[in-house]
Amino acid sequence: MTIYPDPDSEKAIMGSLVFCIHHKQGCKWSDELRKLKAHLNTCKHDAVRCPNKCGSQIPRIMMADHLAFTCIQRRAVCEFCNIEFTGQGLEEHTGTCSQEPIYCEAKCGARVLRGRMSIHRVKDCAKRMRRCVHCNREFSADTLSAHGASCPRSPIPCPQRCDIGPIPRAEIDNHLREECKALTIPCTFRDAGCSFKGPRHLLENHIESSIGSHLSLMVSLASRQEKQIQALKSTVSKLSTNYTGTLLWKVTDWAAKMVEAKSKDGLELISPPFYTSQYGYKLQASMFLNGNGPGEGTHVSVYIKVLPGEYDALLKWPFGHSITFTLFEQGNGGSQGGVAESFVPDPTWENFQRPSTEPDTLGFGFPRFISHELLTRRPFVKDDTIFLRVKVDPSKIVAV
After folding, report:
1. CA-to-CA distance for 302 and 343, rounded, in angstroms?
2. pTM of this structure
3. A GO molecular function for this record (predicted)?
4. In this structure, what is the dihedral angle of CA atoms 10, 13, 15, 21, given to the nearest 10 degrees?
């Protein structure tokens, strides 16, 4: 086959300027076309067969790296076991070499030769599971010793060094409480004042021989406790005392109490005592549900009396401050209605002189405070309960 039609055309074409076919790979060569073949025989970017006959076509510039690192027919030595392999053989060997140090799969932090890993996991690994010989529970090897210091079944000697052998830790308290003969035990009447301490067998003898002295100690203890109880009762009573000058008296079970009042003459309800101020007069209200005096059988009667107080010696007498009784209506949506009666004590009334003892009189008040008829007609009683307020005029309280 004729490529060039005539010698002049061939000469012209073969003399034309061309670039190397590997120009895009970085070859800078350019010359006449006739010299291209000779250049390609030496061009470092031109591909040639691998001399190891691995079948690869590799540019001359990359041949050294290929022969050293990627040629499957290259000869290479494993850095861990020093055995020589072909390139492909080394790739297959990598990740399986028994001499390669790797981190423990149990994450104990140790690096172990791959060939010894199975032995390490069984014998040396800090994370291998081990069974406590006392309680039979499993722990990692690095926590087993810490468990041993608290294992409830681990045997330990008696802290009192008695002649009984090692005892499981969980049973020590019971041993000391029930069995240990070396333990020094206080007398069971220690809180009553007995100072005896001794071994268990001596304690039994002590209790049997000291019945009389123990009884005396218990009597003294009961006496002290009684005084303490009375002091506590007095303190509680003071803490619950009303010092506001206003008593809001809640009377429950109204129907039953009214029935009882009608069946018993002179039945009187007594309110809790209250003070006009912290250092003021002590007062108490009373109520006759079926009335008293002129209100008997038709009205509820209410009274106030002055009781002996702690600060009477410092107060002005007679008591002379106005008192207001108010019985509230209930359930009016916040607009509280009711019945109210007030009075100002007369200085000549004996009821308001300084009391020397608890007064036996009724005090002073209103025998006809509210009629039974009005009680049933208006909502003073709700849920079987009434509310009576007794208020001392705060602007006229005389106290220290």
Report:
1. 12
2. 0.47
3. zinc ion binding
4. -130
